[in-house]
């Protein structure tokens, strides 16, 4: 049996969130950009609105995101304003 491989991400990779993060206003399927890689198990990902405003900057496990696939379709949805956001 082959051990499961951990996805490898690089800075600036576009990734897809695979689980909801309601406290950050994020849903599975939202796109983000890797801004920092923390070894094989962690990444810092920035999620932005369509207008370019940061929605969330989160440290996530590599299992919380996946690479973009050829069959992914982009969509737009409104988000509630973040508490404390200007």
Compile the SSE list and pairings.
Elements: E1 14-17, E2 31-38, E3 42-48, E4 54-61, E5 65-67
Describe the structure.
With 86 residues, the protein is an all-beta fold. The chain is 0% helix and 35% strand. The protein contains no helices and 5 strands. The protein has a 5-stranded antiparallel beta sheet, with no helix packed on it. The radius of gyration is 13 Å and the shape is globular. The model has no long low-confidence stretch (mean pLDDT 90).
Q: In a nutshell, what does this entry contain?
A:
The protein is mainly β and 86 residues long. The protein has strands at residues 14-17, 31-38, 42-48, 54-61, 65-67. A five-stranded antiparallel beta sheet has the order 4-3-2-1-5, with no helix packed on it.
